[in-house]
Amino acid sequence: MYQYQFICKFHQQWAKDNPLCAFKFFVPMSKDAANIVKDKGWDNALPHIGSAYETADILFTQAPESGQITTMYTSLAILLAKGYYSLGCPIKAEQTLDHVKQRILNQAWLSQTCRYQHCIACLEQAMQHNHIASKMPCAASQQHVALH
Questions:
Q1: How far apart are the first and last CA of the chain?
Q2: What does the alpha-carbon distance between residue 129 and residue 133 come to, in Å, rounded to a whole number?
Q3: Which end of the chain is more exposed for a tag (fewer CB within 10 A), N or C?
Q4: Which top-rank group of organisms is this from (predicted)?
C-alpha cells in the first residue's frame, strides 16, 4: 500500500470526502507544479508535484473511470519520478511509476476495458527512459509529459 508523504491525513480525508472540491483544486495545482519546476527547480517543485500526485491518487480511487483523472495521474507520476531521478532518488522514482502502473492495470482488469493502455504504455516508456536518461534535461521530461 502506498504511504502518503506529501499531504497530511487531514487533507487525505478531505479529498476522499469531497472529491469534487478536491478536483477543483487539483487541476490548477497540477499546472502550478509543472511551472514551478521550470521557475524554481526540482527541490522547490517536488512538494507541489507530490501533493498534486497524491491528490490524483485519491481522486483515481474515487473516480477510476475518469479519463481526465487517469491521464493527469499518469502525467504527474511521470513528472514526480523525473523529479526523484533528478534529485538522486531512483528507487522512489521506480516505486512511483510501478505503483501507478499497478493501480491502472488493476482498474483495467476490473473494468474489462482497454482504454487504459495508453497510460500504461506511457508509464512503461518512462520506466525505460529513467533507466537510461536520469540525466535527461528538464525540458525533455516536460516534452514527454506534454506528449502524454
A1: 26
A2: 5
A3: N
A4: Bacteria
